[in-house]
Amino acid sequence: MAADNASSVTEFILAGLTDEPELQMPLFFLFLGFYMVTVVGNLGLITLIGLNSHLHIPMYFFLFNLSFIDVSYSTTLTPKMLMGFVAERNIISYAGCMTQFFFFCFFVFSESYILSAMAYDRYVAICKPLLYTVTMSPQVCSLLLLGVYGMGVFGAVAHMGNIMFITFCVDNFVNHYMCDIIPLLELSCNSSYINLLVVFIVVTIGIGVPIVTIFISYGFILSSILHISSTEGRSKAFSTCSSHIIVVSLFFGSGAFMYLKPPSILPLDQGKVSSIFYTAVVPMFNPLIYSLRNKDVKVALKKTLGRKFFV
């Protein structure tokens, strides 16, 4: 069946974000700016964590991987979107489309689960501080990270399996700026409610399970914070978690809005706008949120810059 797909449809035409000619160049420079901030911000955070030994703790171990995931999946999507703003016809080959889709799914699922691992880390740090070193040992962190990327592989393989068993008709116009599951299913001749059900189940595992984990973690965290007698201690605990809550809200809010609603309720054109948040805005904001609201990162940045200027 996959071979039939490849022979009947060898390429797709991506609709892009908008078909308004006067908006193409302004949007090109806007998203180029987003992408540059994303790459510089995330690679900067990765470098900062790598160079400063006092940041070699579980919280920053997960933040290091979050930055890696963000810069990777932004790179999977944004360059092709930028080409769409300047090219007359934004064409992507069948193999290129499937490759982009696979890595997009892998990194989005990985991001969902790295955010839940970070929530668990904050839960242990605030609710069980005396057991933190033992509970979040290097071995445990490595196993959690293995689970994160394992779920990334699961999400990518499950969605790819769903796509491989459908046949594409003559129409190869994808109403999106990237290869995504819902617009690809719209082009299929033989997709059924079973395919949409698989999408819903896989996305629920990708979004629902991490959200439940995060809610439970923050339920316990909130309960512990309210039992802290000193105002300073309470304030410090809230500030530690606030960055993570902002990132989680942006990422899961836009993702759920796009995938966990029937297509009749959310037309694809509105879905494209929603997709912008978790594919372009969230990866750009993550390093800014975590660095601007984090005292340790600010100190590490000053140290690193001071060391550079001194040398």
UniProtKB/TrEMBL annotation:
Signal peptide: none annotated. It is a multi-pass membrane protein. The keyword Disulfide bond does not apply. It comes from Panthera tigris altaica (Siberian tiger). InterPro entries: GPCR_Rhodpsn (IPR000276), GPCR_Rhodpsn_7TM (IPR017452), Olfact_rcpt (IPR000725). Residues 41-290 form the G-protein coupled receptors family 1 profile domain. Putative odorant or sperm cell receptor. Its main location: membrane. One of its GO terms (molecular function) is olfactory receptor activity. Coiled coil: none annotated. This is Olfactory receptor. Keywords: Cell membrane, G-protein coupled receptor, Membrane, Olfaction, Receptor, Sensory transduction, Transducer, Transmembrane, Transmembrane helix. The chain crosses the membrane at residues 27-48, 60-79, 91-109, 130-158, 193-226, 238-260, 275-292. Belongs to the G-protein coupled receptor 1 family. It is found in: Cell membrane. PROSITE patterns: G_PROTEIN_RECEP_F1_1, G_PROTEIN_RECEP_F1_2.
